[in-house]
Fold:
Amino acid sequence: MHDIDGRRGLYTPAERARRDATPWTLVQGILAPLQFAVFAVSLVLVLRFLLTGDGYAAATASVVAKTALLLTIMVTGSIWEKAVFGRWLLAPAFFWEDVVSFGVIALHLAYLAMLLHGGFAPGAEMACALAAYAAYLVNAAQFLRKLRMARRQVAS
Structure:
């Protein structure tokens, strides 16, 4: 299996060594599941609000928390990419994951803009949050696929 830059596997031996040596790998390993946990709770709160009309403040706070974690993981992920691949973003091995991440961030920031601007119906805000969450799930699946690829590369 060849990656998009034509090399075999996800990491070269030097990249794998840098990945294993940088503390940013651990940071990503902590933030990614934390973000997913916040996403799961937030999704329940957003859906509860949309279905019942109750809990707008809790749903809003949860989407803001999810957005803050997303931005944190994007910044630390970019530092990780620089440490491992020598590029802040769009390293060939993670090009499409980064591209989709930009869309995910744009949707989350659109939600924040709606919230801060005011004048939008709460249902519209939460619909935007759900769109952001759908994009996030696609992106999370991309990263899980890469994690499995990395594990298979180490095993072989």
